[in-house]
Each structure stands twice: as structure tokens, then as C-alpha cells.
Amino acid sequence: MSTIILPNTDLFCPGDFLIQIRGNILVNVSPMNGSTQTVEMPGDRIVFTLMYGPHHSSDIAALRAFWLRFRGQAHVLRLWNLAQPIPLGTLRGSPVLESAAVEGANSVVISGTGGSTLNVGDWIGITLSTSDLQTVEVVESSGTGTITVGINPPLRRSAADGATVVWQRPWVDCLLTSPPTIPHGKGSANQMGISDGFTIEAAEFVP
Questions:
Q1: 50-54, 91-95, 164-168, 178-182: segment of lowest average pLDDT
Q2: What is residue 64's DSSP assignment?
């Protein structure tokens, strides 16, 4: 299993894409009175949907070669928030965790350079104790330089004091949910085809 990074070129930029977080939630509904209980467990996953619009047959070959090489779930796709590759806040440089964070934590403290900030909606990657990177979204932020940050989803593993925080294209390693079908369009045999577009869905790979 290899990790393959989405090329950062116009051809591979989807016309539209969606991001959602699928919580690992157990829901029990009483058949007697309808009361509902939920249990939250570690293992939330980020899911991406990439929608490619029509392409000329001269472009579709490169797209086909890239996406079919995954052969379903044989390889890992590395993605990031394509609309926001860096924070809207001023956090840059080499930030780290100011203090350790436990599994399930929904807030962390980050030490950056003086004046560093994070905005609600920024994405950051936190290096876990397993050396994996977990990318999370900022839901609360206060302070400058030393920033207290509320995050979603919660940490699936603990993270050590001084762990690296990634702000530039914090990545999410994913598996495709199903093998894609790449259309070529009518007239493609004469190099005049226009594809109808296609969709890729990829769910976060949790090792």
C-alpha cells in the first residue's frame, strides 16, 4: 500500500468538493418509550467528495491514469482542504503543542511565534503519539503566540508535549470508498469526446 498525493495542478482540481465529518457514534433508541441514548467513541472520520466536471478527451487520459491506479482501496490518497490550504489566522513557522493532550481531547494549546493566531474554521494537523497526523478544524480560538484551540473532531490518540503542528496543507490520508468510473464521452474514439464528469469519494484512513 502506497501513499499517493493529489497533484497540485489545475487538471486535478475538482470543479466542486464537499467535506463532512462522520462521527463514530453509537445510537440506541428504546423500542418501549422512544428515548435515545448516544455514545461517542474515538474514530471520527473526515470524508471528501471531489466532483470533476466535463473534460476533453485529451485531458481525460491523465485523470483516468491517476484515479484508476488506486484499484479501489489498494493505495492511500493524501488530500487536504483544497479551498483553504493555509490558515486564515497568522500561525506560521514551526508551531508545537505547548502541553500534552490526551486521547479524546477536544482542545489543545499551541505554542507559535509572537502574535500567532488561529481563526475559527482554520485547519491544522497535530502529530499524534503514533507519529500519524490528525487534521482537525478549529472551532474555538483564544490568545496570541500561545493559542488555546477548540478542535473537531477530538483527538483519536494522545499527543505529546512539543508535538509538531502542521499548518501548511495539513493532510488527511484517505481510502476511496469505491473504484471510480471514468467516462470518456461520445466521440472519444475520434479524439473529439467530452466526458460527462465523474465523482470521487474518499474517507479518512485510520490506521
A1: 178-182
A2: H
Better pLDDT: 116 or 197: 116
Domain limits, the chain: 3-80+172-204, 96-166
138 neighbors 122 (Cβ within 8 angstroms): yes
Distance CA 139, CA 114 (A): 22
What number of CA atoms fall less than 13 Å from residue 11's CA on the CB side?
A: 14
Is the pLDDT at 28 greater than 90? The verdict is no
Which band of pLDDT confidence, cut at 50, 70 and 90, is reported for residue 29?
Answer: confident
Residue range 3-80+172-204, CATH number: 3.30.200
Q: What is d(CA 64, CA 67) in angstroms, rounded to the nearest whole number?
A: 5
